[in-house]
User: What shape does this take?
Amino acid sequence: MAKIEFLNLGKQPITNNFLNNPKPKKEFFYNLKVTFDEKSKIVSLSNFVQPEKMFNETYAHRASMSKTMLLSNYKLSNYIKKRFAPRSILEIGSNDGIFLKNFNNILSIGVEPCKNLALITDEMGIKTYSNFWDINLAKKIVNKYNAFEFIYSANTISHIHNLKETISAVEMSLSDNGIFVIEDPSLLEVLKKISYDQFYDEHAYVFSILGIFNLLSETELEIFDIQKTSTHGGSQRIYIKKKKNKINISQKVNNAIKSELDFGMSKYETYKKFAKKVESSKKKLINIFENLKKNKKKIIGYGATYKSATVLNYCGINTKYIDYFVDTTETKQGKYTPGTHIPIIKPSEALDSSVDYAFLGAWNFKKEIFSKEKKFIKRGGKFITHVPTPRII
Ligand code: TYD
Assistant: This one.
């Protein structure tokens, strides 16, 4: 029983390191490799990148930039209020307050190490600790506010390297009847969609239900419900409680574990097969770009996502193929993509009549983007995607 490496995505930059200069003097790169733990069934990066390099005051991702995300957070908060009616809530990784701002009548506390983001929620009146989540911070918060009835963490637990400490810190911060909900990209979806771009510096782990189940088996916590969501191209919301809290455990938990076992997710060979499919995806994508460039087509990128950094750097897609990226996030505009140095511009200047193709960096927002870009599509503009297989749409 051991940890075995199955995927090598080559030299990669910090995905959040949008550059001010297309020819930076110094840029940090690391080797992005992915490992399967045969004992715990947990999939993680082989080498973690130092958190301070990724989560700092220049952090670019603003969850509230997307209408889809705003609406799904609003809907989720209403659901939580109805189902659990918590009187206190703690969010680990509160970003710009997209979730917590829906809970203004109860005690709401945020934890957000990126200072620029913590400032936003502090200004909204939500007390936010601008620190990394660990045992010491949990002790400090619980001493001041007592244990919480609801703890939420979306796209954050998978970013924290020390999983055991993270979970212990949650155990001590959750009241005995409290509910802990985590939401992260689903490993099953990644394997099905060949969306290898879910692997990047921040995603220290891409979770399976199997992995979380095994992780919690040694704690006082257990999974009692699961919901699939379409967020980030296919995520899972896992509902966790203390074992002594006698809420019914939904049949969905066993079903989800069975689906993962049926897919072969407890076996190394499944991951090795996935790695082969990733190599073939790379070849196909490069082919598409090469052919279009031979025919003098103008290609731009749509959505300078973190995920796209993995694809661009792994496949060697740079300014030779893509003229520029368009992105609605103001802090990315005027900068250059990490590693591949492609300029990023704002939407008003982007899809003029000279553009033939747009590579979907934000493929997870395909629906929202297609409905926004009807004009481009109507005049014959086409999109390129690599998920689930590289193709033109
Ligand atoms: P996101 O989904 O958070 O992916 P990642 O976690 O991989 O960065 O990022 C989506 C990006 O796409 C974000 O920078 C905003 C951008 N975007 C647009 O530019 N236009 C759009 O219409 C949408 C929906 C997103």
Summary: The pocket of thymidine-5'-diphosphate is lined by residues 61, 65-66, 303-307, 326-329, 332, 362, 364-365, 368-369, 372 (CB under 6 Å).
